[in-house]
Amino acid sequence: MKIESPRASLDFNRNIAPENFDFWNAGNRCLQNARYQLRTLWLFTYSDLKTILIPSLFFASITTLSGPGLTTTPYRPALCSLLIRVPHMVVWLWLTLLLVDISNQRHTKSILEDRINKPWRPLPAGRLSASDARRLLFAGIPFVLITTMVFLPQGFPITVIAIIGSHFYNDLGGADENILVRNLMNAAAITCFGAGAARVALGKEIGLNNDAYKWLGIIAAIVTTTMQVQDMEDQEGDLARGRVTIPLLIGDVLARYTIAISISIWSVLCPFYWDVITSGYILPGFVGFTIAMRTLKIRTLQADKLNWKAWNVWIMILYLLPIWNMTATFVKECFRDVCDSMFHF
């Protein structure tokens, strides 16, 4: 019987795990690659955080806090119960938004537009190819559908609607069909994300009531008639890809007047619809009229970019209106209690 020497055994192990293999550097390279890929996913959604994720999260929170105002529950929930649901809303919003954004940004015309308007996005920046994006979308759709169906079932129907709508908008050319179709589809997307986030926040036992759906319809009308504020900063890229937008169709000056007039009208109509107290007219009116005047008077690219950001703030202020009177009463009572405690002897 042949017995191997200890030295022979050591030599054999050395052949399996070479001394020059650096596990530390290999681990660092894996971490760097993971960070790179995660940043790529983040960049797909970055520009829509202010447009979709944050406003939708805000809308869902206000809707939940409204209690019987916009939901089927007779009670107003505690703030802590809403905070527990915030991570669920963020995860659902971001995963669904990721699918929509990959679908939107992977086409040749979209890449051409983004090279001009948003060169930091993953495809024009060369972080991945259009084929890679298609494969990522192919893998991402079943992953997101399974994740939402198992862990966030209240948002699952809206995720399916978002995927179908994204196919119509991007793959079937809905974004380039005509101005009305494009604005209507953008309005549908914004209201669907808001409704989906609200459903996730409310859970399986509570739903949206008829007033909520009427309010969503009004929001869709607001977006449809004011969404061209986004197109003002993207005119060069839209022209390069051949997309027809309101400023390119009727001219920069007339487009600015449509923005100023529609925002000013909605800034008054929405507080009137919710029958808010006087203070409820001041904030949306001030922000809305400011955007209107800036749009007409300051006609630079940087000003248009700021106006688009301000539009997202304005729409969130409108989201506050259903609970404006309730909030004002609560603040007034808290102020009165503080004053009574300070001056009570």
Explain this structure to me?
The structure is a single chain. With 345 residues, the chain is mainly alpha-helical. The chain has helices spanning 6-16, 23-45, 49-65, 79-105, 108-117, 130-151, 156-171, 174-177, 179-202, 210-226, 228-231, 235-241, 246-250, 252-273, 279-297, 301-320, 324-343. The model is unreliable at 1-17 (pLDDT under 50).
* Fraction in beta strands: under 5%
Class by SSE composition: mainly alpha
Report the major sheet: none
- Which series of helices and strands comes N to C? HHHHHHHHHHHHHHHHH
Mean pLDDT: 89
So what's the overall shape? globular
Q: How many DSSP E strands?
A: 0
Rounded radius of gyration (Å): 26 Å
Distance between the termini: 101 Å
Number of separate helices: 17
Helix content bin: over 70%
Uncertain residue ranges: 1-17
In short:
With 345 residues, this protein is an all-alpha fold. It has helices at 6-16, 23-45, 49-65, 79-105, 108-117, 130-151, 156-171, 174-177, 179-202, 210-226, 228-231, 235-241, 246-250, 252-273, 279-297, 301-320, 324-343.
How would you describe this structure in keywords?
345 residues; mainly alpha
How are the SSEs ordered, and which strands pair?
Blueprint: H1 6-16, H2 23-45, H3 49-65, H4 79-105, H5 108-117, H6 130-151, H7 156-171, H8 174-177, H9 179-202, H10 210-226, H11 228-231, H12 235-241, H13 246-250, H14 252-273, H15 279-297, H16 301-320, H17 324-343
